[in-house]
Amino acid sequence: MDNPITDPDVSWKDAGSDFIRSEVSGGAVLLVAAVVAVIWANLGDTYFSFWHSELTIGVGDFSISDDLRHWVNDALMVIFFFVVGLEIKRELVVGELNDRAKASLPIIAAAGGVALPALIFVALNAGGSGIDGWAIPMATDIAFAVAVLALLGSRIPSGVRLLLLSIAIVDDIFAITVIAFFYTDGISFAWLALGVGGLGVVACMRRLGVARTALYVMAGVVVWLGFFESGVHATIAGVLLGLMTPARPIEGGKRILENLEHGLHPYSSLIVVPLFALANAGIVINGTIAGDAVASSVFWGIAAGLVLGKLFGISLATFAAERLGLGKVPEGVETAHIWGIAALGGIGFTVSIFISGLAYDVPETVEIAKLGIFAASLISAVLGSVLLLRKSKT
């Protein structure tokens, strides 16, 4: 059997199809993991005691100790962000974002879809202790959004999926930039130098034509360690390594990026992200937390930001770009479809939860933020489906 990571015959078309299939199935597994996490958290204390169990990797002074949840968030999620980096690189080099004409509309739409939610959150939380969560409603979960589209079937034009994916990928770029610049602790420049030096080693190996995967993995571990210890969130290392991967065939016709994406994406979407949901989505739902959430500006800032901010931010920015001649939607995409796409953009599960853990230290505030994300994502999924199905019947 061919190895998908090294098989040179994997085409861009195949990689794109596998991407969609992985996102659809990944969305289903992600939903199951989130439901299991919530049920588990409400059955007793075992959920929290398990994920707070400490794990040490290494020996003596050359070891890192952290609880299981942070190992998932700071180590395993690097794989997810590495795949995100690959996706961004592919789109920038050979995809829908590889020239100004095709990239302008998704960029403008995504910009509207991150700016308005953040502004809504800030407006509702200005001067309050929850203001640090302003970036939580900026994110769109590609897996869930694509899974919802898949459930709607062939009635939805392919251009709708293309536009949603393009907007979501640009959305990822904004989210990663925000994490790097606004959710970074005090920086240790010595450790950061190690991480940057590791990136330099990767660049040199690329230039010298080194093809051994093990050497890149070793360099990648050094990059991760440098960023992890520096205070810059370690997941940024994954994105940078993904962006450094060659997107065009190299000597012998090897398609490094698409083979890596083809091979790693199933593990990312079917194992890493569901594990993240299992470790982070568990919240105790009772009258007390529900009452605290309804009374919290953090809850309403996230809910309104995702549902209303995404809906109007993406759609109005898209309409403005078209009216001003700055971009054009794919063939077959009409006004009603744009409203549906914009609504689905409010499904902000994975990265929104990730940012909430970076933004807040108080567990109760994190729980309220998660409730806001859950509620908004559910409403956005239903609203987007209704808008798209109504169009498909006309």
What share of the residues does DSSP label as strand, in percent?
Answer: under 5%
Structural class, from helix and strand content?
Answer: mainly alpha
Shape: globular
Task: Give the proportion of residues in helices.
Answer: over 70%
Spatial strand arrangement across the major sheet: 1-2
Quaternary state reads: single chain
Number of helices: 15
Topology, element by element:
Blueprint: H1 12-41, H2 46-51, E1 54-59, E2 62-67, H3 68-93, H4 100-125, H5 142-152, H6 158-182, H7 189-208, H8 213-230, H9 235-243, H10 256-280, H11 287-294, H12 297-323, H13 335-344, H14 349-359, H15 363-392
Helix pairs in contact: 1-5, 1-10, 3-6, 3-9, 3-10, 4-6, 4-12, 5-6, 5-15, 7-8, 8-9, 11-15, 12-13, 12-15, 13-15, 14-15
Describe the overall structure:
The chain has a single domain, classed as Na+/H+ antiporter like fold. Helix 3 packs antiparallel against helix 10, helix 11 crosses helix 15 and helix 12 runs antiparallel to helix 13. It is mostly helical. A two-stranded antiparallel ribbon has the order 1-2. The chain has 15 helices and two strands.
Outline of this structure?
The protein has about 400 residues and is mainly alpha-helical. The chain is built from 15 helices and 2 strands. About 70% of the residues lie in helices and about 5% in strands.
Protein traits:
single chain; 394 residues; mainly alpha; Na+/H+ antiporter like fold; 15 helices; 72% helix; globular; disordered N terminus
